[in-house]
């Protein structure tokens, strides 16, 4: 979680905004992607776990990074 907070702060700094705003925008993007599937998990969501009805940025980012690393699309 500490790394996620550092990431938010760095993105915010580079974009002249707050970490809270960055997180809100991430959540909006996640919500739009989720809703495009009518709330039904699609192939991107398959195998991922979330505590609530839909993923949060804190849950999704590490899982996407792990998936990308597994598929060789993220240097590790």
UniProtKB/TrEMBL annotation:
For this entry, the protein name equals Sporulation initiation factor Spo0A-like protein
Q: Does the keyword Protein biosynthesis apply?
A: yes
Annotated keywords:
Initiation factor, Protein biosynthesis
What is the native source organism of this protein?
Allofournierella massiliensis
Q: Which GO terms describe its cellular component?
A: cytoplasm
In Gene Ontology terms, what is a biological process of this protein? Answer: regulation of sporulation resulting in formation of a cellular spore
Quote one Gene Ontology molecular function term: calcium ion binding
Signal peptide: which range, if any?
none
Q: Does the keyword Lipid biosynthesis apply?
A: no
